[in-house]
Design goal:
- The complex is a heterodimer of chains A (about 300) and B (about 280).
- Chain A is mainly alpha-helical and about 300 residues long.
- Chain A is built from 15 helices and two strands.
- In chain A, about 40% of the residues are buried.
- Chain B has about 280 residues and is mainly alpha-helical.
- Chain B has two domains: about 60 residues, no CATH class; about 210 residues, MetI-like (MetI-like fold), CATH 1.10.3720.
- Classes of the chains: A mainly alpha (about 300), B mainly alpha (about 280).
Chain lengths: ~300, ~280
């Protein structure tokens, strides 16, 4: 028995020693490269192609034209959706930064020995099902929801507050909620790395608290701030769940795209909207990626 | 911490009354400055956990509307949940998809991490970009692009296309998790093993793999959660088959129902358990 396994082992060894395991790119990097070329780059390119042909009676007609792009920027609903999406994405990015910065700063600099436990608490909403969490907001904000029923029960109001759900307010709240951890985690990573002695040196040289923040802490946390901004802005621009679930009928690019691929039945039009979104995503990444290190964020 | 308080020196030339007010104000400012950060942190945590806590609490609420005041405790919604066959079928589908995606993503991702960290080749920047891009692209775009792609190449959408689609964005997460671990250990350990007569295979199995294991396991757990929770890719590429998030989605479209709270609570607790395990392993 032992002899046989020894023999097999030595066979395996000779075979595997002949395959250069860790130094050929083809074996290690090849499979993932193939995967991303076939199922990421390919589909994205085909989306750009579909955007310049037409769809008639639920059939793709291979005639090149820019008609779909014209429609993206001239259709009233599309213009309104783009304006609303850009505005809410910027507002969400700004809010997330303002909310996350002091929070990340506190955990990173004053978290002490509970730092890791606090960080796990941030990771939990980051990795749990987002549909379920957005549904939670639907329960909280609805006209018969937690907030309204509580306020009516306490006799603070007589009629439920209508603007809590299915408005731009709820989209803004939902987006901020959903992407907040994407702002917190990169900010935490960059704030945590700051050398305490730099801050002490600044104080020793007579800097005020404000000056220390403005001239030492803030500049050193820029990579985290930029990393968070990239994620929150891109994900808000491409959001679908939040506007569809708690956005009522508010026009939003994500829901327009899903509509064209669903009951709208105009894939070409949806692909054109998707391509514009993709260009915005790529542009954001291109212009901001140099200021941050994306790999260190997770 | 010693810098959190600023000197509140009394300035000369002020009446006692003014200076007392001044002192109160500055004491107030100091207190606020010292405590606003922890208070803010508590508020942000409350915001992050509000829907999670509410869903779990109200899955035990008797009334059919999830509203206050509290009507009473019940486990009725959980027993209703367990008798829902479509729910059980979609949960089974999700587990099957997630298991397959996890195995494939872990293997591809670990190999990819080795290439990313140890590999020496030209155009490494491009390779890195191709790995990172699928993580940053909104799921909606990836979802519709994959839907078009499978349609163009004539592949019927099913659970298989869901798995292929999820692999695109799940694998990069494994690459990042494993490569962080790989950067942390010294390549000289491998060289030492080779110098002491270990074959390439032995080095790989006895040195590299055990050292990477915590990274690989936590990457695999991440992969599982990402796949299990994914809605957008599955929504566009699942065809007639439901995964759990799609089932929850369609149930929500039909209006609020306390059974959704019970399902949500289970999904949340399941994910939370996986995350905590993965974090405990990787730290």
């Amino acid at each position: 028995m032992v002899e046989i396994t020894d023999k097999i082992n030595s066979k395996v060894r000779t075979i595997t020693n002949r395959i250069p395991i860790s130094d050929t790119f083809l074996v290690t990097g090849g499979p993932i490269l193939l995967l991303e070329m076939l199922l990421f780059l390919g589909p994205i390119l085909i989306m750009f192609y579909i955007a310049v042909i037409q769809m008639e009676n639920l059939q793709l007609v291979h005639e090149l034209s820019l008609q779909n792009y014209v429609e993206v920027f001239s259709g009233a609903a599309n213009i309104e959706a783009i304006k609303n999406t850009v505005f809410l994405s910027m507002l969400t990015t700004f809010t997330a930064a303002v909310v996350a910065y002091p929070f990340a700063y506190y955990i990173a600099r004053h978290g002490g020995r509970f730092k890791n436990q606090l960080l796990i608490l941030v990771m939990i909403p980051f990795w749990t099902n987002y549909i379920v969490r957005v549904y939670g907001w639907q329960i909280i904000l609805g006209s018969e929801g937690i907030i309204n029923s509580l306020l009516i029960w306490l006799n603070v109001i007589n009629e439920p507050i209508g603007w809590l759900l299915n408005t731009n307010f709820s989209i803004w709240l939902g987006l901020t909620y959903l992407w907040l951890p994407f702002m917190i985690l990169p900010l935490y990573a960059s704030l945590e790395k700051i050398d305490e002695t730099l801050i002490e040196a600044a104080y020793d040289l007579g800097a005020t608290r404000r000056a220390v923040f403005k001239r030492v802490i803030l500049p050193l946390s820029i990579p985290g701030l930029v990393g968070g901004t990239i994620f929150v802005f891109i994900f808000s621009m491409g959001a679908y769940i939040v506007p569809a679930m708690i956005g009522g009928g508010q026009l939003f690019v994500g829901t327009r795209i899903a509509h064209e691929f669903g009951i709208g039945g105009d894939w070409a039009q949806g692909a054109a909207l998707g391509s514009v979104l993709m260009i915005v995503v790529a542009g954001t990444l291109w212009s901001l990626m140099g200021y941050t290190n994306m790999e260190e964020m997770f | 911490m010693s810098h959190d308080t600023e000197p509140t020196a009394q300035r000369a030339g002020e009446t006692p009354n003014q200076s007392r007010l001044d002192r109160y104000l500055s004491v107030g400012a100091t207190v606020a400055e010292r405590y606003w950060l922890p208070v803010w942190a508590v508020l942000v945590f409350a915001f992050l956990f509000a829907p999670i806590v509410i869903l779990i609490l109200f899955s035990f609420e008797q009334g059919t509307f999830s509203s206050l005041p509290w009507n009473g405790f019940t486990t009725q919604w959980y027993s209703e949940m367990l008798s829902d066959n479509r729910l059980i079928q979609s949960t089974f589908n999700s587990l099957q998809v997630a298991a397959n995606v996890t195995v494939a993503a872990t293997i591809l991702g670990t190999l990819g991490a080795i290439a990313l960290v140890r590999g020496q080749f030209r155009r490494k920047g491009l390779f890195r970009a191709i790995i990172i891009a699928p993580m940053t692209i909104p799921g909606l775009i990836l979802g519709i692009a994959l839907l078009i792609w499978f349609n163009v190449i004539g592949m019927n959408t099913s659970l298989l296309t869901v798995m292929l689609g999820q692999l695109v964005f799940v694998t990069p997460f494994v690459v990042i998790t494993v490569s962080a671990r790989l950067r942390g250990f010294d390549p000289e350990l491998e060289e030492a093993a080779r110098d002491l007569g270990a074959s390439k295979w032995q080095t790989y199995r006895r040195v590299t793999l055990p050292l990477l294991m915590p990274g690989i396991v936590s990457g695999a757990l991440f992969a599982f959660t990402l796949s299990f929770d994914d809605f957008l890719i599955a929504f566009f590429t699942s065809g007639p088959n439901n995964t759990l998030p799609i089932y929850i989605w369609s149930k929500i479209q039909h209006g609020t129902d306390p059974v959704i709270n019970a399902i949500s609570a289970m999904v949340l607790l399941f994910s939370i358990t996986l995350i905590v395990i993965s974090q405990l392993i990787s730290r």
